[in-house]
Here is the input.
Amino acid sequence: VLEASPKVRARTDLRCLRCGRHYDESAAIYLCPSCTVGDDPSDAGVLDVQYDYDLARRQLADQAGELRLERNDVFRYLPLLPVDAPAPVLPAGGTPLVEAPRLVGSTNLEALFLKDETRNPSRALKDRATAIAVTRALEQGHNDLVCASAGNAAISLAAFCAHAGLRAHAVVPHDASEVRMQWLRALGADLIRSEFDYDGAYQQAEEARDEGWYSRNCAFNPFLVEGKKTCGLEIAQQLNWRVPDLIVCPVGDACTLASIGKAFRELREMGLTGRLPRLIGVQAAGVQPLVARYLGRDPAAVKNGSQGTTRAASINVGHPRNARRLLNELETCDGELLAVTDDQMAVAQLELARSAGVVAELTSAAGLAGLRMLAQRESLAGARVVAVVTGGRLDQPIGEEVTP
Ligand SMILES: [Zn+2]
Here is the structure.
């Protein structure tokens, strides 16, 4: 057995999800230069990190071929990450997969598991991407990082920067919660209050890259979804590589669920699993551009035509910037996109608390709400399901996220 040196990178290059062109990482390209963004940020040339999976598989194993996955954070899967070594950042990942039998109730599911991402350092899955962003920023000598966020991503970035002694710049949309902004100030972040919604704030944060600030905008910076991917890798490992039938997850910019799909494709590629889970993405009824695109309707019509809003702040995204990444994954795994109302999310939020003891924020209850909707449409008898509970801030009233 040829033992690969850990110094040899398993990652090879970057591939545009839109046109398929390959780019060398050293070219320092951010979005594909051949795919113009134009007026539609939903279809930018987002890049995807490529790996040599034979090499990655060997690096994950010891000399006897057994997996050596000792660490309990995202760096456990180092050969599948776009960083050269673990950095001394807050420990993201390593969250529990909790079986919740009382949530199965009268359904015929075999089992329902909650991937409890509220147990990350800043109580959100976002920390997985932040860990990679901060590590790469340190590797490249950046002192400043920037992101656009309604709350969780910015709070995550601010927390990691506070710990590492770096400067976090948070561009927050005009409707961001006052409580979350107070926490951003408490964590020492430079707060840049946008006069626009999330879509406008995102654009402002992108332009701030000209300052030399490292981008923690997960949808465009190609390296950050690799951090989120570890959520999927953990789910598989925690189920002893027995792939679940369904994974349900809220969808905003579409990075999280798409990255979980990539994780399961990689595991299959490395021969650790034999099939893919069906991914079920859940959007809010008031803002469901991806559902519209999935069903072939005009996404702009949904954003501008219906009531066009949701109290679930983290998925209030009119122009999902990683749409193509998720749509590709859904096609590969025969997945689906659903939309649930805010009231259905609020019911699921209470259900998670009362029947599983998990404090989820409104957005993060969308997965369970979507599962309930799916169960009314089709039989889920005997299915093993994982619902990703993406975050659990305690600073918002039950059933609310946006403070008027
Ligand atoms: Zn391209």
Notes: The chain is about 35% helix and 15% strand.
